[in-house]
Amino acid sequence: MSTHAIPPNDLDLSPIMRPVYLLPGWMNSDPDHWQSEWQRLHGDTRVEQNDWEWPRRGDWMARLDEVLQQDGRLGDQPALLVAHSLGCQLVAAWAEHSSHTRLVAGALLVAPPDTEREEMPPQLHNWRPIRRPRLPFPALVVASNDDPFCAPERAAGMAADWGAAFVLAGPLGHINAGSGLGAWPEGRAMLKRLAG
Hints:
Layout: E1 20-23, H1 34-42, E2 45-46, H2 57-70, E3 79-84, H3 86-97, E4 104-110, E5 139-143, H4 152-162, E6 165-168, H5 185-195
Parallel strand pairs: 1-2, 1-3, 3-4, 4-5, 5-6
Helix pairs in contact: 2-3
């Protein structure tokens, strides 16, 4: 299990030759979020959900399945999923139930929230229990030492259950716009390694 981020001199920021789908969490990713930066800089595709405020797990799973099936490129070139926060729980739930997981080559799962915590808002209660079956594709979980929505030990446990590699990236909060990451080149380098 890896516990350290990629050193700055090892960053590979060359283009990724696969479709990349961005899966934001609850309330979507705002314009200053690294996912929004990746969409602008790299042309990644954001999976838009019908309801960002009251996310229903089944609805989000169906939407992801629909988007992937509509992409004619994925038969020959499976996609990479880049999930943040609740998007990580979406990947786990979708992979458990979908018959289309062959369309995915790997997943970068950033800051998975612990939706089983007592203080989770009521909008997220239908995301319990956390789905924990092993993922059928390679995955990497990136967690923060001081994420207010998930203790690092809980994130490491999810990674282990999902069969994913694990990186503890330091004190980055919820690894969102508030973390001041800009385009987060370290994250892009991790995705590049996953793609390879």
